[in-house]
Design a protein that fits this description.
The protein is 69% helix and 0% strand. With 196 residues, it is mostly helical.
């Protein structure tokens, strides 16, 4: 048998073996109609509307709780080095520090952070805890403040007020802040009755 004749017959047989396009369209139409009619609604528990609502509610609640925890840790002076939330507070402050681009903004940030650390030291003193770590951080922040104050924009009129506040903060003795009267009233430390 000739090879070209064999190839021609093979091509013809292949064409006859494949269903025509109109036949395939009609078959697909019938199958899809049958499948749609026999389709059973899904009753798998993770595909239900209630489960989806519960998951979205839980995830939004978790996001809100994490933001609230971070806000509490950042703003509260009672969150000190011995607190579980202290790493959260430090991370938020690190991000805030990196967002400060100008030397004036960094100086404002350091002044604010020093005030926060001093209020943490007051709370630690009231609760009779060690203030060594907090005081070391205050010294570190003052060193950074000195470095940034050398780079301040002298042409800016707001810099004069900032320089005065920096000078006052840096000239303060490092003996640490004294407890505030409002904090003493709310603490559980007994007052000395012999004091007048």
């Amino acid at each position: 048998m000739n090879s070209w004749l064999f190839r021609a017959r093979l091509r013809l047989a292949r064409r006859r073996a494949v269903p025509s396009r109109p036949f395939r369209r009609r078959l697909w139409g019938r199958l899809s109609a049958t499948l749609q009619a026999r389709r059973v609604p899904s009753s798998v528990w993770y595909r239900t509307r209630g489960f989806r609502l519960a998951i979205s509610s839980f995830s939004s609640l978790a996001v809100c709780a994490s933001f609230a925890t971070g806000a509490y840790a950042y703003a509260s002076p009672t969150v000190g080095p011995d607190s579980i939330l202290y790493p959260v507070k430090r991370q938020i402050e690190t991000v805030e520090e990196r967002l400060q681009r100008t030397p004036n903004a960094k100086a404002e940030f350091y002044l604010k952070t020093i005030r926060k650390r001093e209020s943490e030291a007051v709370v630690e003193r009231i609760e009779h805890k060690s203030t060594r770590m907090t005081e070391a951080e205050i010294k570190s922040l003052k060193t950074r403040l000195r470095t940034v104050s050398a780079k301040l924009d002298r042409d800016d009129p707001a810099t004069a007020d900032l320089e005065v506040r920096i000078r006052r903060r840096l000239e303060k003795p490092d003996r640490g802040p004294r407890p505030d009267a409002t904090l003493l009233k709310s603490s559980s430390v007994p007052k000395d009755r012999n004091r007048r």
